Amino acid sequence: MSNGPLEIxxxxxxxxxxxxxxxxxxxxVYDLLAQGRxxxxxxxxxxxxxxxxxxxxxVEKMGDSNGLGFVIIHPGDLGVTIAxxxxxxxxxxxxxxxxxQYDDDVPLDTIRRPSVAxxxxxxxxxxEQTIWRETMMTSRPDRFAYLNTLAT
Length: 152
Description:
This protein has one domain. It contains 3 helices and 5 strands. It has helices at 41-62, 119-135, 143-148, and strands at 13-22, 25-33, 65-75, 79-88, 92-101. It is globular and about 45 Å long. The protein starts with 12 loop residues before the first strand and ends with a helix. 26% of the residues are buried.
């Protein structure tokens, strides 16, 4: 029986990039960097295309969106992950993930390799759920406060 590879935890640099309004969703965009990695123009273009061509289409098809979410652009050790999350039904966090190894031209099949997030992405996701609860799940939901309260 194999237990798989293990890593030693080392914090990764995270930074707020911008707010992107794409279709029916306004996303807070974060960079999350493995040591020695940067977010490239190609990664930004891929994230924009992924959000416009796949994520927003799914948001519209699914319905019940709150029109807000966040994206993590994460150049990791082995490849890049673009994790898009959006809020639905007032308290449900939905997600679509794009993953591509650096040496591959084609993204990984995230259906056959289902994952929620890596350790470092979970820190941003956890902070974002707290921000959502404190700014939007109140008697006076405040989009401005949500968009201006950052996980980093």
